[in-house]
Amino acid sequence: MSKVDKDSIIRAAEDVVRERGARKLTLDAVAEKCGLSKGGLLHHFRTKQSLLKAMLEAATARESELTAEFVAAGCGAAGGTLYARIESLFTLMEDDESLPRSLIAAVAEDPALLEPIKTREALIRREVCESSSDPELAQLLLYAARGLFLGRVLNVMEPDDPVYERLHARLLELCADID
Amino acid sequence: MSKVDKDSIIRAAEDVVRERGARKLTLDAVAEKCGLSKGGLLHHFRTKQSLLKAMLEAATARESELTAEFVAAGCGAAGGTLYARIESLFTLMEDDESLPRSLIAAVAEDPALLEPIKTREALIRREVCESSSDPELAQLLLYAARGLFLGRVLNVMEPDDPVYERLHARLLELCADID
DNA sequence: GCTAACATACCGTCCAGTTGGTCGGTTTTG
DNA sequence: CAAAACCGACCAACTGGACGGTATGTTAGC
After folding, report:
1. Where is the HTH tetR-type domain (chains A, B) (predicted)?
2. Do the Cβ atoms of A63 and A92 come closer than 8 Å?
């Protein structure tokens, strides 16, 4: 029996987005994907917005988890949390472009969605600042990684462009310089 | 006589987006805004997608124009085109957040929209690389500006956060270092 | 027998795109 | 030169389907 809890619904929604794009993330599609009727789906998430919010939270949680793993694996030793943050960003975007892209679309259409995320963002900023000898530069590096992230998930940059790997490496070097 | 050409339609569409948000950019709304019937509007842009494409092109054109102005004004002297590019990004995002946000939403929902923009992007990259003694770092600085841009238009960062101005200043310093 | 977890059926709205036509001007042709 | 044919710009009304959400069950477990 495929258990149908909120997590599996979120996973189904992610699959829908990956397979059919942001525009096609519809309640019917999600319901079908997780073998539920629309009514059943709406029993768990009373509105589409709340489903989107949960998806966003799941995504950011995964990012933080991944960061923690990188820190645990010792990457942190070379450049504070910043290094791990950036590595997890790169990992995520290499793993999957369409999900982040769709989440960006959702957030851009309805900024209220990321209210709950702002606190986490503030936390990241503090973390990054405190673990570095040059907090401003550290933040800029984080933003650079995010800018690259955006370019990548929006397909502005070809996924196999060699410059991409070079910039990645260079970013990590710069991180190490200011740990 | 309010002339109704493609440009004025695009301006109307931008107004709609600014006033009512990305989600509400509907053909009817645009038509009403520029005093045209929907049929008339669709005479100029045969699909909504083509209107969006035109809006994107207009926005990127404005950005390049603004960059050229900064270069002409002598800002370029201190850090190549990169400086001007970054300044124009900051100018744009301080000027208006909702239009860029909506364009990002549109692009994220339909990546095909920015196919025509990729060539311009390639041009920017070349420009930035050629005008700097450290092309990789120059690109990273550009991406950092874009990351900041994203954070700003998505309201992840408070618009009046003082750190924002500090990062802006620091970015420009770094530009000057590698001109 | 009460609640959580579903299902079925339906509603109302929104909205991109279509249809078929009007109207003023320009070009063609007899 | 004038009628006819044509054309670009525009409009009002409509269609058809997608989609979020509701209303009303049904069933299984405690």
Report:
1. 3-63
2. yes
Q: Are B86 and B179 in contact (CB under 8 A)?
A: no
Task: Classify B11 as helix, strand or coil.
Answer: helix
Task: For the beta carbon of residue B40, count every other beta carbon within 10 angstroms.
Answer: 13
| Alpha-carbon torsion, ordered B69, B111, A115, B55, to 10 deg | 40
Angle at B15 between CA B150 and CA B30, to 5 degrees: 120
Region of residue B107 (left: phi > 0; alpha: psi -120 to 50; beta: else) = alpha
Q: How many CA atoms lie within 13 A of A169 on its CB side?
A: 6
Cα separation, B61 vs B26, in Å, equals 23
Instruction: Tell me the pLDDT tens digit for each residue of A19-63.
Output: 999 999 999 999 999 999 999 999 999 999 999 999 999 999 999
What residues does each domain of chain B span?
A: 1-46, 56-177
DSSP B73-114: TTGGGGTHHHHHHHHHHHHHHHH-SHHHHHHHHHHHH-GGGG
Nearest-Cα distance to chain A for B142, in Å, is 8
Residue A124, token pair as written in the block: 């990241």
* SS3 call for B128: helix
Tell me which residue of A38, A35, A37 sits closest to A2, measured CA to CA: A35
Q: pLDDT digit string (tens) for B57-77?
A: 999 999 999 999 999 887 656
Does the domain at A1-46 match CATH 1.10.10? Answer given as yes
Residue A86, min C-alpha distance to chain B (Å): 13
Residue A130 CB neighbours (<10 A): 11
Our measurement of CA B99 to C1' D23, in angstroms, reads 40
Question: Which amino acid is located at A45 in the chain?
Answer: F
User: Which of B104, B108, B136 lies closest to A167 in CB terms?
Assistant: B136
Q: Which of B98, B121, B144 is closest to A149 using CA atoms? A: B144
